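tokens incoming
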């Protein structure tokens, strides 16, 4: 597992999340149609509108302990793309052709499931011997 690019990727990602709070995910949002005076739905009183690469948010309770960013409900037309930073390119010596978050995660989950099922089978056969 140590030399496998997919396993190394998820091991490193886990460590970064736990130790540094870095999630290894890129997000970008493209807004193609938006009018802040007409397209906002249920805007909280005294909130500020925040538009970032991750979408449109309301900043509420600014400069207080309750300060928070909450996703804004809007009629805006936007697309948010999510991708992995430094996505792995191979697993078990074979190239990973689709390195989308879902596909890479599915490959890893299937691999780990196979290992657990194999180990469980070995343990069960040893108990029955």
């Amino acid at each position: 597992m140590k030399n496998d690019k997919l396993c190394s990727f998820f091991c490193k990602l886990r460590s970064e999340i736990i130790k540094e709070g870095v999630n290894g995910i890129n997000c970008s949002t493209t807004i193609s149609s938006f009018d802040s005076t007409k397209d906002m739905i249920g805007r909280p009183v005294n909130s500020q509108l925040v538009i970032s690469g991750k979408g449109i948010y309301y900043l509420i309770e600014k400069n207080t302990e309750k300060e928070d960013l909450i996703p804004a409900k809007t009629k805006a037309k936007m697309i948010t793309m999510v991708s992995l930073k430094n996505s792995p390119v191979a697993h078990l010596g074979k190239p990973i052709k689709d390195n989308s978050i879902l596909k890479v995660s599915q490959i890893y989950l299937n691999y780990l499931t196979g290992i657990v099922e194999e180990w469980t089978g070995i343990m069960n056969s040893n108990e029955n011997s």
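note: The chain has two domains: 1-24+85-129, 26-82.
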